[in-house]
Amino acid sequence: MLAGLLQLLLPAACAICRAPHEPGSDGIVCGSCLSRIVPLALPLCARCGHPRYSLAVPLAQEAPSGSAPSGIAPSGMSGPKRAAPCAWCPHLHPAIRAVRSVTRMDDGSGPALVHALKYQGWRGVAVAMGRRMARLSWPDDVLSERAALVPIPLSRTRLRERGYNQAQCLADAIAPMWHCPVWSDVLVRMRDTQSQVRLTPSERAVNVSRAFAVPQGRLAQLRGAHLVLVDDVVTTAATLNAAAEALVAGGARIVSAVTFGRAPDPGDRTAS
Ligand SMILES: [Zn+2]
Ligand SMILES: [Zn+2]
Q1: Which of 51, 101, 135, 253 is deepest in the core (most CB within 10 A)?
Q2: Which ligand minimizes its atom distance to the CA of 45?
């Protein structure tokens, strides 16, 4: 009876490629689609988790800015080198310690997984996505300090329309693997913000500024904590920054963030 019920609840075909599921499959997305999640190109920046534009810049022969699009030092060049500054870190709020993401949003099956979770009602796909988010590597201090996962809240209107918060589904999937609680009520969205999809980076920052707040009754809980924000995708970091700002104003000491997808920047190296 249970197997029959599961057959009713689960799709007969993969939610992404529509290929019929193998008999006995308990998934929403097929193994082939899951294997096409493209990881971010290594090496990643230790803080923001973005693919490094360049590996190292020789101290003596630093190229003038703009002369080499990739910034990669010519091969064979020896001598002391320093790590090139990360181009993505300056986007982040100073209280953000580290950000990690699973995949790029312009390649592989990652974008289709996010679409299935957010717009097609397949909330169960968050389990496979969260499992991959939980396996990302972090600096040691994040591993030892993280106190709780905090999903980016949706506005009440958006929550009513969608019926669930996709970030909450992802946090719930990560929590058992991290042995970490999910604190869903420490951050609230104060007002309905416009969808970020068609906005420029500066419009996004204005759109979400002061969009979040910590309820009075949760201030004591946050004091001194290192919290990990959870969202489906990071694009300009405007949402993460606004949420981090509210958490720190509410007493948190430091904030990290984990997302499934990451919008690419022009000039990124690719892994595929
Ligand atoms: Zn598939
Ligand atoms: Zn960085």
Answers
A1: 101
A2: 2
